[in-house]
Amino acid sequence: MRDLALEPLAGLEVRDIRIGRNGGTLLNVPHLMLDGPGPTLILGPNGAGKSLLLRCLHGLIAPDVGQVLQDGMPLGARQKAQQAMVFQQPVLLRRSVAGNLDFVLRRQGLNRTARRARIETLLQEGGLTAKARQSARSLSGGEAQRLAILRALATGPEILFLDEPTSALDPAATQTIERMVLHASAQGVRIVMVTHDIGQARRLAADVVMMQGGRVVEHGPASEVLDTPRSQAAQLYLAGGLII
Ligand SMILES: Nc1ncnc2c1ncn2[C@@H]1O[C@H](COP(=O)(O)OP(=O)(O)OP(=O)(O)O)[C@@H](O)[C@H]1O
């Protein structure tokens, strides 16, 4: 486990990334630094470029120009191996709940005894102990998302990206996942999460990135961005105005 007193969270920096398609700009971020304690919540209307930014940060998409740096180093295999991502629709293997976790732990080279112990801890963290032998495909939406998060955490990431992980879930399931996210954050994992839910941003975020039209229109402490937004785009979005 990371010693939080000695070791700061892994930092992310965006340097002038741009993505264009068919003559239009999908993403244009001159600079963005995520080096605070987090969690960072990315907010904005549909099509604002939130998922694209997340995918760039995770190295799933290479920008046309520009760079993403992790702790000052360009994203390479080593940096990507320190990151994990959870999608809106959890992607699970056709195995048991425990089998899904065992799969990633095996790839990390853990022996059988170590894997068992780690699986037990993870299942407890996610409240899935009773479902260990059940097929992952038979889980409810909230349970499946919990397992997806546990599997992402099983790799021991320094950075966890989450793309609207609770958008299809009810308040109770959302609350469980928010607790898991905050727990991971407290353990020293940098959290970068996309949401449409302003309440969720208030509950979780240390800092908020507000996006519109492929651009970051505001980034700052959650209280500042959510309570006293400077940009008109953020003011409208937070007031529930229709941004078309
Ligand atoms: N591979 C691609 N090719 C072309 N256009 C794309 C591609 N991926 C995303 N886009 C476009 O880029 C824009 C931003 O998409 P993105 O998925 O990042 O939005 P978002 O803010 O996450 O929206 P939502 O809240 O609806 O998920 C959209 O107009 C989308 O259609």
From TrEMBL:
Q: What InterPro entries does the annotation carry? A: AAA+_ATPase (IPR003593), ABC_transporter-like_ATP-bd (IPR003439), ABC_transporter-like_CS (IPR017871), MetN_ABC_transporter-like (IPR050086), P-loop_NTPase (IPR027417)
The record's annotation in SUPFAM superfamilies points to: P-loop containing nucleoside triphosphate hydrolases (SSF52540)
Transmembrane region positions?
none
Cell location? Cell membrane
Which SMART domains did the record assign?
AAA (SM00382)
Q: Can you name one GO molecular function term for this protein?
A: ATP binding
Membrane topology classification: Peripheral membrane protein
Judging by the UniProt lineage, the source's domain of life is Bacteria
Q: Which organism is it from?
A: Ruegeria sediminis
Instruction: List the Pfam families.
Output: ABC_tran (PF00005)
- Does the keyword field hold Cell membrane? yes
Name recorded for this polypeptide: ATP-binding cassette domain-containing protein
Q: What is its main location?
A: membrane
